[in-house]
Design goal:
The chain has one domain. By secondary structure, the chain is an all-alpha fold. The protein has 3 helices and no strands. The longest helix is centred in the first third of the chain and has 58 residues. 3% of the residues are buried. α1 runs antiparallel to α2 and α1 runs parallel beside α3. The protein is elongated. The N and C termini lie far apart (83 Å).
């Protein structure tokens, strides 16, 4: 009987570990998607300079055309940012809900460690967002 209880407890732990790994995979996947979107949005500012330079080289753009295209790309960046501002709360809600669900399968000791882990993730995310905002403020506009 003791062997059967031990087996059942071990089996239960294994199931919880598999479930936690699956849920953590979802969180990591959602976070990766979130970061990918932000990295793409933040790289577009520097990319627009490269795009304008490339178009100037290939199409022999005039200064007036460069200025117009730069304005168009800046408008596109603003539209991307509005979309990002609209979607960001949805990502946050999913992330927080998933964290709550993960916490329900963890022991109190694991919950403490998980909270510490999520605080570290949040701090890294905030630092990257702050860096991206600062980069966007200091990105030069092309003037050829």
């Amino acid at each position: 009987m003791f062997v059967n209880q031990s087996y059942t407890a071990t089996k239960r732990k294994a199931q919880l570990i598999i479930l936690a790994a699956f849920i953590l995979g979802i969180v990591v996947g959602a976070s990766g998607q979130y970061l990918l979107v932000h990295r793409t949005l933040n790289n577009q500012v520097g990319t627009s300079v490269k795009i304008i330079d490339e178009l100037t080289r290939r199409l022999s753009l005039t200064s007036a055309q460069r200025i117009e295209i730069d304005a168009m790309l800046a408008d596109a960046r603003r539209q991307y940012q509005l979309l990002d501002d609209e979607v960001r709360p949805q990502y946050k809600a999913i992330r927080l809900d998933t964290r709550k669900r993960i916490a329900t399968v963890l022991t109190p000791e694991q919950q403490s460690l998980f909270e510490e882990y999520t605080r570290e993730l949040d701090a890294k995310r905030e630092a990257k967002e702050r860096e991206a905002r600062e980069k966007n403020l200091t990105t030069p506009t092309p003037t050829k």
